[in-house]
Amino acid sequence: MTTPTSASASSASTSTVTTPTATLGAPARLADDTAQGRTTIAASVVQKIAGIAAREISGVFALGGGMSRAFGAIRERIPGGGVGSSNIAGVQVEVGEKQTAIDLDLVVEYGASIVDLARAVRRNVITAVERMTGLEVIEVNIAVNDIHLPEADDGSEIPVAPAPARVE
Q1: Phi and psi of 120, rounded to 5°?
Q2: pLDDT, tens digit, 9 for 90 and up, residues 38-54
Q3: Residue 102: strand pairing partners
Q4: Of 17, 58, 139, 150, whose CA is between 20 and 30 Å from 158?
Q5: Does this model's pTM top 0.90?
Q6: Per residue in 74-100, pLDDT tens?
């Protein structure tokens, strides 16, 4: 970058700096830059913090939709497949230099108020990520993909009464 030599040149030239954003597999981003050093935070760190904070709320059964949970279960059985940043199903993050955005896919327990649950999850995720990373959380989008029925835990199918015959 060149330095303008006159006052008129400095007022006529402007530079625009764009801040890149990163998704999960991208390199770490700047969180703190001081004269004493630089701190960077990887997108996978933000993803893990958000996942743990979401699971702390009573009424959240699991993260991820049906397919992502199925692939996660298979991946965990493969040696070395359960480690790394891609194993947190249901949590996607976008990390910039000073801000982050988070998307969560939830499975909730039957009977929980989804609106209240989403509000509590959002509040807990924002608090945890901002406290631990110093990044500003600009949004937490929550998609409820399924409801967990407690009767389905014992491995048997939920009994369904046969439908009465409509015709003779």
Answers
A1: -70, -40
A2: 888 999 999 999 999 99
A3: 93, 140
A4: 58
A5: no
A6: 655 666 555 554 558 899 999 998 999
